[in-house]
Each structure stands twice: as C-alpha cells, then as structure tokens.
Specification:
This protein is of the alpha/beta class. It has three domains: 15-30 and 652-772, Barwin-like endoglucanases, CATH 2.40.40; 106-201 and 423-614, Rossmann fold, CATH 3.40.50; 209-417, Dimethylsulfoxide Reductase, domain 2 (3-Layer(aba) Sandwich). The strands form eleven sheets. It has a six-stranded mixed sheet, with helices on both faces. Strands 26-33-30-32-31-34 form a six-stranded mixed barrel. The longest helix is centred in the first third of the chain and has 16 residues, at 38-53. It is globular, with a radius of gyration of 25 Å. The protein starts with 22 loop residues before the first strand and ends with a strand.
Length: 774
C-alpha cells in the first residue's frame, strides 16, 4: 500500500500549512502525577493569567468568572453550583481559557502586513494562539500573500454577493462552534434557513453526536437526565471514557464531595488519569498542604474500544449472580426489549468479553457486584465513548446498564454525557442542527412568516466532502478552528481550498485562517469576557450548560478593539447584505431576540424574566422529571449490540487521540502535560512497554505514525515514543497533531462522528527527524 497523497498546489504554498512536522527537541518525560489540583494548579493558573493579562486584569476577570453577575467560563459546560458560590468559582483550565481571551497581546493590520500567510503557516498552533486578540476585519484576496484590512460593510457585501451568486443555497456551509451564545445561534440558524438551507454542521458532529443519537433512540431525549444535585445523592458514579481532571476540572469538587460521603467512583478508561486518582482542592488547607481526597475507588484499564464488551460483561454478571438487584418493577412498567436483551447476554461468551475488553472475568464480576448493590447510580462519559465506529452502541450499552437497575428518572441517578464547549448544548437547542425536526421548522416558519427548508443539510463530514467535490463553494464558521478540529487534516485542507470564499468569525488567530478558499475573511468578534454595548445599552447573552440550565453571561472587560462586533451583530450584518433584512432592533436589545426564542422553542416561556433570576432556569426534561420516554412506543428501550471485532495485523496498534492538560479543544495553552509527566512538547506517542520492546523500538525514539483504513495510509511525522501505563495493543497521541491520521470516511454508525478514538496505526522509524520547537 502506498501513502495517501494530496495535492498541495495553488497559491498558498505547501504541506506545512497543515502544521509544522518537526520533532520537539527539548521534550522531557517524567513520572505521571499521583493527584490533581493543589498548589501547582493555583501556581500555574495565576502565573499564566498574570503573564497574559497582568495582575489587575487577572484579579478582576477571575473574580467575575462563573459568578451570577459575571460571565460564563468560555471553556467547558460543567454547571455552576446551586445557591451560594465561592468567590473563586473557577478551575486551573478555566483561568487559562480566560487568560487566552483577555490577553493584552493584539494581532493588528500591521502584524498581517509583516507576516505573509505562508510564513504564519510555518508556525505552530501554540505560537499562533499566543499572538493575541484579532482587532479588525481582514481580507485575503484571490492570489494574495498577505491579509489586508477591510471595512465591515465591505466584508458583509462580499459575503452577500458570494452567497447570492450561488446556483443553490445548498452550495454554502455554515459551521458553528459551541462557544456561541444562544442569541447568536438563534439568529444564525434563522439567517441560514431564510437563505434556504439546513447546512448547519457544528462541533457536536465531532464530539457528542453519538450521545444524542444513542439516548434519543433509547430514552427519547438527546440530553443528559441528571442535575448537579443528583451527584449529592448518588451512591455509585461511573466515569467512562472521560478525563475530568483536564477537560472538566470543576467536576472534581463534585466527585470529592461524593467520595467523602462514601460514594463508589468507578473509572473506566485506557489511561489511569491523575484527575481521578486523588484531588487536592485548592481552596482547602488539606488541598494545599495535605494529601487531598482519593476519588476513584475502582479503576478498569479497558482496551481502546473495549467498552461494549466490558459493559456487556458487567450486565451479564449482574443477571447471573445478582438477579435480586435487577429492578424488575421499573423494567416491566417503563421499558421494552428486555427479553431479547437477556437472551443476547446469556449467549455472549466470557472469553470474547475478556479478550475484547482486556479485563479478566473475575475483575468484571467484582465491579458488577459494586454496581448491583447501588441504589442510585450516575453514568458519566465523554469522547472516549463517542468517537468510535460503534459509538452509538457504546452509549446504548450505558443506557442498558442504567435501565437494568432502574437508574433513570429518580433522584441521584441517570445518564450524564459531559459536554465540552460552554454552550454546545445550547446551540443545538437553538436550532443549530443539520437535521431539524419538522415541529421546530413549523414553529420557526410560523413565527417569522416563511417556509424553512425541510431537506436535511450537511453534517461536518458531509460538508468537508461537499467542499472537496466542489459541490459547496462558500464556507462560513461562527467561531472555532475548523481545520484543526476536523478529521483527515490534509483532505479537509484540500476541501477548504476548493471554496470561492471562506469566512472565519474569530477572537484569535488560528490555523483555519491560513488554509483558505480563493478569498478569505477574518471577522473579529467580542469574547465572553468583554462588555457588549449596543444602541440599547449593555447586553447580556445566555448559555445552556451540560445539565440543561439556561443562565446569563455578562462581560465586564473593555473590548480588545473598538472595531470588534458581537456575534449577533455579525450575523445581522451578513443577513442584511444577503437577504436585505433589517435586524437592527434585535442587535439594539437582545431581549427582543429572547422574546422570539420564547415563542419558538418549548421551555423558554418568559425567558427574559427567568434568565435574570439567580442561577437562571432549568429546561423541562420528561425523563428526569416524570419518567416520560418520548420514544416510538413511549418506553425506554433495551438494545442489543455485538462486541466489535478488530482485525489488527502484526505490528498494528489501536490509537486514540487525547488532550494534554495544557489545552482545551484545539487551543494550546502551553507545552506541558503536567498530570502525565510530559513537558516541553506535544509530538509524542504513548505506548505500553511490552509493545515497544516487541516492535524493536526504545523509549524516546523518533517515529512516524502511519494509519491504515481501506487500503489507504496516512502519515504523521516525527513523534517521540513515551513508555506509559496503557493496555497492550493501544496507543495515545495528542490532537490536533494526529487528526491527519483520522480517515474522512471512518465515521460512527448512526451519528457519523469521526472515529478519532479508533485509529489503526503502525510505527516506522523516522529516517532523519527534523528538530525544532513548538
């Protein structure tokens, strides 16, 4: 088989636009941390924040973070506590996220005049992000080498001309990042649907889409069924395929309270993450001077994508040995499919379960006994579950486990998919979805007196394929770093370059600004931390957290530039230039947007008053509130799934992409993964010591990683081997550096999420590794 080749020709240079593929020369590898939080977390957060914001700005920003009169963290979507909040209601990575946005560094027109697009592309994602906030609209003309200033009106007119010149509205793609507010998202989807398409892919397509599909088909809702208060009542919490210590650090204080009252916390993950070993709460004396609190009572090092096998094994053991703990009353009254489900488990081989999961039958039976004894269990999961070919089956097996014990629709129990971006769930609620329901479209059309398009639009992978095949010609991104976040980086890069126009609404410089269509626009927007002053005065925006709480966010800092516009204002500008509509009233007073949201979307009645109440308001949830299941037959569904079969050839490994502790999604805060003991670099591959020896490699050796899918190979160059406690046959690497290895045509069945956690790879020695630094 030959390497997957790409044509990087055109006016933008060479493969380095994807990311510099140089070996991190100064990388250091130490011992993974035995705990998370504590004084190091405080020190790192404050040091990084002060360096970027200064002392005064740091204090004022962090004291406003996640406060009722302050702004919502631009990082993860973990909910704020009910009632009184700490004055320090933030985590280490939340402080880093604020520092990135509120930095004093600026990217001006003079910066773009000094640096060509080609020169910027030679820099790392980390370097690009540290240049600071974008300050004015910029335009890259056809054949141009440098971005140049453009007025807002000229930028909007260019967008309007390009969109209206298309042969069909379906030739445009409108992407959304999960950072976008409810108000901006609602206006954006309204603009797009009045334009005539449902091409509204979003970051959900790449992360928790599998959760939504799996839960919708089994429980009748795509949202989690627990509140933060439920964690105070649970006697068992399963954390599956999730690393809260890095990705949702405020969750650790919730888990700490659960552990202190005796709750069993079971961690299921290929890597034993420091955040679930022991937590040192920075606001407690024992968290600074003491040993902290042990969290996970049990750890199961499941093989990558061994979740279906492990979950089936736990359920099989429960039925075989703990039948008295099965909630037959709940099952009889509220569920369907139980007999077929039991027959499937009875026929499943313990040998196949142990081989696929990598966990011995005896250990599975021990955990089954723990779960069987639980009266109130919560299952939490993240992308370790949702980014496999069988990801929807993974989610449905979690639901099976919950249904078996009746752990749905009662206090202290339920499903908890932990979302990433701070409003990714709210964007979907607002209608950012390529497959809207007809009910939503009818309500939207009736409110705004038009007929919305009914044909389903492009998801992320469909959008990339359409651009690559020249079936889509304009790409507009409301936030995010699409190129770095998407799979198959080379293929995605080619797709973007086929466009006539690419538009990025952004706060900071990123790689998506450097790999563009024939022409490109950068439209700088306000950040979550900044004051949003419109004709009607200071505005508040709203977000929805992982548990369906809608609340306000008030930025307090002066904008990074007088030329910045809010995301709603940018959407209104595009709509005016394209459709000729006047949405100036919406922009003058966001209450007018919320009035329309309240009339279109169920659960938002009297939104303007309720969002101003302390803590906001909870959206209705039939499963949680009434054990009401909006499935086809009104019952929760037990489902049956085969154990996935992977035929790895000799020398091949199963790779998953992960985040370092110094990043959030594609934003790289720094070059240290403190909890895993890796510093000064990111181009590493974590391997089991026995796999390293079996393949004739050694610790620290430089290798290329080659992925294999349907006879096509993709290559990522110059990675250092790091010995790590990971199951045999498995490997872990950071994204976005290895997104180039994720095939565009390898997606989850049912959800079409890219399979970033199930990539078949082999390793080859790097012949002449290029040395450099990030």
């Amino acid at each position: 088989m030959s390497d997957h080749k790409s044509d990087y020709g055109g006016n933008h240079g060479n493969p380095s636009f994807l990311s510099p593929e140089v070996l991190d020369a100064a990388i250091r590898v130490g011992t993974p941390s035995a705990s998370s939080g504590g004084l190091p977390a405080v020190t790192v957060a404050l040091t990084m924040a002060i360096k970027q914001m200064g002392v005064s700005r740091t204090m004022s920003s962090l004291l406003d973070l996640n406060q009722e009169a302050g702004f919502d963290c631009p990082g993860c979507a973990w909910p704020d506590p009910d009632g009184e909040r700490s004055r320090f209601e933030f985590c280490e990575n939340g402080a880093k996220a604020v520092a990135e946005e509120a930095t004093r560094e600026r990217v001006t027109a003079a910066f773009f005049a000094e640096h060509s697009v080609a020169a910027l592309a030679e820099r790392s994602d980390y370097w690009l992000g540290k240049r600071g906030r974008l300050t004015e609209p910029m335009y890259l003309p056809k054949g141009g080498t440098h971005y140049q200033p453009i007025t807002w009106d000229a930028a909007f007119d260019l967008i309007g001309r390009e969109l209206n010149a298309l042969a069909s509205p379906h030739e445009a793609v409108f992407y959304t990042s999960g950072r976008t507010s409810n108000e901006a998202a609602f206006l954006y989807q309204l603009f797009v649907r009045q334009f005539g398409t449902n091409n509204l892919p979003d970051c959900s397509n790449m992360c928790h889409e599998s959760s939504g599909v799996g839960m919708l088909e089994t429980l009748g809702t795509g949202k989690g069924s627990v509140s933060l208060a439920d964690f105070e009542l649970a006697d068992c919490i399963l954390v599956i395929g999730q690393n809260p210590g890095t990705n949702h650090p405020r969750m650790l204080s919730t888990l700490q309270r659960a552990a202190r009252r005796g709750c069993r916390i079971v961690s299921i993950n290929p890597l034993e993450e420091s955040g679930l070993k022991r937590f040192k709460h920075p606001q407690e004396v024992t968290g600074v001077l003491g040993s902290g609190t042990a969290l996970a009572t049990d750890y199961l090092p499941v093989r990558i994508n061994g979740d279906v096998a492990l979950l089936k094994g736990i359920q099989k053991a429960m039925i075989e040995s703990h039948a008295e703990c099965i909630d037959h009353a709940f099952i009889g009254e509220y569920t369907d499919g139980f007999v077929r489900y039991c027959d499937d488990l009875a026929a499943e081989s313990w040998g196949a379960i142990a081989a696929s999961s990598g966990i011995a039958e005896s250990r599975i039976r021990e955990i089954a006994a723990v779960i069987a004894s639980s009266k109130t269990m919560i299952c939490c999961w993240a992308m370790g579950v949702t980014q496999h070919q069988n990801a929807v089956a993974n989610v449905k097996e979690i639901v099976n486990l919950l249904l078996l014990g009746g752990h749905v629709g009662k206090p202290g129990a339920g499903a908890c998919p932990v979302r990433g971006h701070s409003n990714v769930q709210g964007d979907r609620t607002m209608g950012i979805w390529e497959r809207p329901t007809q009910t939503f479209l009818d309500q939207l059309g009736a409110e705004f007196d038009f007929t919305p398009p009914s044909a389903h639009g492009f998801d992320v992978v469909h959008a990339i394929e359409a651009m690559h095949q020249r079936r889509a010609h304009v790409f507009i991104a409301l936030g995010g770093n699409f190129l770095s976040a998407a799979p198959d980086t080379a293929y995605t890069a080619q797709a973007l370059r086929q466009c006539r126009l690419t538009v990025q609404v952004s706060t900071k410089l990123n790689r998506s600004h450097l790999l563009t269509g024939e022409r490109a626009l950068i439209l700088p927007c306000l950040g979550r931390t900044e004051r949003d002053l419109q004709a009607g005065g200071a505005q508040v925006v709203t977000v929805e957290n992982s548990m369906g709480i809608v609340h306000g966010s008030h930025g307090h800092l002066a904008p990074a530039s007088e030329q910045l516009r809010s995301e709603p204002a940018i959407v209104a500008g595009m709509a005016r230039a394209t459709l000729g509509v006047d949405w100036s009233g919406f922009i003058a007073d966001y209450d007018t947007i919320r009035d329309r949201i309240a009339r279109v979307i169920p659960g938002f009645d009297n939104m303007n008053a309720r969002v101003r109440e302390p803590g906001g308001f909870a959206l209705p949830h039939g499963v949680r509130d009434r054990r009401e299941f909006a499935t086809t037959n009104g019952r929760a569904q037990f489902t049956v799934h085969p154990i996935p079969q992977w035929a790895l050839e000799s020398g091949q490994l199963m790779m998953m992409t992960i985040r370092s502790h110094d990043q959030f999604n594609t934003t790289i805060y720094g070059l240290d993964d403190r909890y895993r003991g890796i510093s000064n670099g990111r181009r590493v591959v974590l391997l089991n010591a026995d796999d390293i020896a079996a393949q004739g490699f050694s610790e620290g050796e430089a290798v290329d990683i080659v992925s294999h899918f349907r006879g096509v190979q993709r290559r990522a160059q110059n990675f250092r081997i790091v010995t790590y406690a990971i199951p045999r046959g498995c490997a872990a690497t950071y994204f976005p550096e290895t997104n180039v290895l994720v095939p565009i045509d390898s997606v989850a069945a049912g959800s079409r999420t890219p399979t970033s956690k199930s990539v078949i790879i082999s390793l080859e020695r790097a012949l002449e590794p290029a040395l450099g630094h990030a």
